[in-house]
Amino acid sequence: HKECTQGNMNTPNLNLGHPCFSTKGHGNTGRIHLAVAPGCNISCNYCVRKFDCANESRPGVTSKVQTVEEALQTVMKAKSSSIGSKLTVVGIAGPGEPLANSATFETLRGVKRNFPEMILCLSSNGLLLPEKMDELVDIGVSHVTVTLNTLDEQVGAKIYSYVRWEGKTLIGPDAARVLINNQLEGIELASKAGMTVKVNTVLIPNINDQLLYSLGLEIKKRGAHIHNIMPLIPQGKLAHIKAPTKELLTNSRSNIGGILPQMQHCQQCRADAIGLV
Ligand code: SF4
Ligand code: SF4
């Protein structure tokens, strides 16, 4: 159990078979992203809705939304391609919020039925994670990514314009409070259910860069396994903010790298990406 600069190695149960959940192990396995989830239930100020969910994907690209049938065809084709045997993961990451779209669940069930050996992965803003947990467990989802940017509802009010919750549109700290509580509860439930849990945090200079240590401690307490601090790509309502410098990003990662392993290689891939990572 020794620390290294690539993120520490104190999490022996990391599933290295999944390219996105290892601090460095990529190149040999890959994933198929299925863009079946266009709708979203919150509004992140760094999001431009006509593009993919910025929580997991590279902003500025738009994935073509597929039907469930098209998505299953995509898996079939990818699996029979030359790199098919290396594609071990099917992920749903957008272009909106996977859990807010029923096609996500139909697609995951279809993949499980037809390709039972594939690892099922999902990224989420976390709002519906507690509510949908039983269904995800039933389907056999084993890897979940939650984008959690702050634990502070005042900071959250600067990051999220609104949260749609139980038929209402919440704004300000009220919106952030519901979202943050659900994110933390969802992380805890997923971890207790035996899933491998990654947390993405978008580093937004002068907004959420001060409180990351306590965020790291809390997500670890809730059972997260790996953390990915991602640089803000300034756009949408946060277009006026400067992207974090390399130095701020490196410092933030190394400041809290002793809490959970930090990912170093995230490429912010798009919601319909297929290939080795
Ligand atoms: Fe955009 Fe994703 Fe945030 Fe929804 S969760 S507003 S799609 S960045
Ligand atoms: Fe990797 Fe995220 Fe896609 Fe899962 S959803 S395969 S973690 S990029």
UniProtKB/TrEMBL annotation:
<keyword id="KW-0004">4Fe-4S</keyword>
<dbReference type="InterPro" id="IPR013785">
    <property type="entry name" value="Aldolase_TIM"/>
</dbReference>
<dbReference type="Pfam" id="PF04055">
    <property type="entry name" value="Radical_SAM"/>
</dbReference>
<keyword id="KW-0456">Lyase</keyword>
<comment type="pathway">
    <text>Cofactor biosynthesis; Fe-Mo cofactor biosynthesis.</text>
</comment>
<dbReference type="InterPro" id="IPR006638">
    <property type="entry name" value="Elp3/MiaA/NifB-like_rSAM"/>
</dbReference>
<dbReference type="InterPro" id="IPR058240">
    <property type="entry name" value="rSAM_sf"/>
</dbReference>
<dbReference type="InterPro" id="IPR007197">
    <property type="entry name" value="rSAM"/>
</dbReference>
<protein>
    <recommendedName>
        <fullName>FeMo cofactor biosynthesis protein NifB</fullName>
    </recommendedName>
</protein>
<keyword id="KW-0408">Iron</keyword>
<keyword id="KW-0411">Iron-sulfur</keyword>
<dbReference type="GO" id="GO:0032324">
    <property type="term" value="P:molybdopterin cofactor biosynthetic process"/>
</dbReference>
<keyword id="KW-0479">Metal-binding</keyword>
<dbReference type="GO" id="GO:0051539">
    <property type="term" value="F:4 iron, 4 sulfur cluster binding"/>
</dbReference>
<keyword id="KW-0949">S-adenosyl-L-methionine</keyword>
<keyword id="KW-0535">Nitrogen fixation</keyword>
<feature type="domain" description="Radical SAM core">
    <location>
        <begin position="26"/>
        <end position="270"/>
    </location>
</feature>
<dbReference type="GO" id="GO:0046872">
    <property type="term" value="F:metal ion binding"/>
</dbReference>
<dbReference type="GO" id="GO:0016829">
    <property type="term" value="F:lyase activity"/>
</dbReference>
<comment type="similarity">
    <text>Belongs to the radical SAM superfamily. NifB family.</text>
</comment>
<dbReference type="InterPro" id="IPR000385">
    <property type="entry name" value="MoaA_NifB_PqqE_Fe-S-bd_CS"/>
</dbReference>
<comment type="function">
    <text>Involved in the biosynthesis of the iron-molybdenum cofactor (FeMo-co or M-cluster) found in the dinitrogenase enzyme of the nitrogenase complex in nitrogen-fixing microorganisms. NifB catalyzes the crucial step of radical SAM-dependent carbide insertion that occurs concomitant with the insertion of a 9th sulfur and the rearrangement/coupling of two [4Fe-4S] clusters into a [8Fe-9S-C] cluster, the precursor to the M-cluster.</text>
</comment>
